[in-house]
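Predict the structure of Carbohydrate esterase 2 N-terminal domain-containing protein.
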Amino acid sequence: MRIVGIFLLLVMCLTTQAQTDQDLSTLVDGVTFPNPVFVSPDPPKPIKGWELTSVSDEKVLKGEYPGEIIKFRFKGTAVGILVYSDNHSGIIEYSLDGQPWFELDTFSKDAETTLKGYTLDKDLKNRKHTLQIRIMERNNPESLGTNIALRSFYTNCSLKSCMEF
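Done. Here is the predicted structure for Carbohydrate esterase 2 N-terminal domain-containing protein.
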């Protein structure tokens, strides 16, 4: 499987603002992420299989095609994602630093989209890491699709330490 895109996101430039005054930190584990840094998935160039679009008036990276991989590089001891879930949402696989792939089902029974936070790992060494995400062909039997609407990556690093990579 080929890798179709790499994100080198500079946190200082791409840290997002809370959506219309809603505090996004309420969607994440406050113990692991006491001061989460949210990073918008805004690639410098288009990635095959993924498109920048809007959900609930926010920019999201939407993936519809299974197998296409995106990468996110970060520094910290924990990482998570914010995704919009609904009854068309699919299953992703993710891998950190080339380790085995894990599955995450983002399906929701609701037809209306809901923003959800998912902690992907919280026991990492405090150094540079690479997160890979791909959409699976198989989906939840109740889901009407395999779509993924990625709103943000988030880490638990301080702004200063994130900028060191």
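Confidence is low (pLDDT under 50) at residues 1-22.
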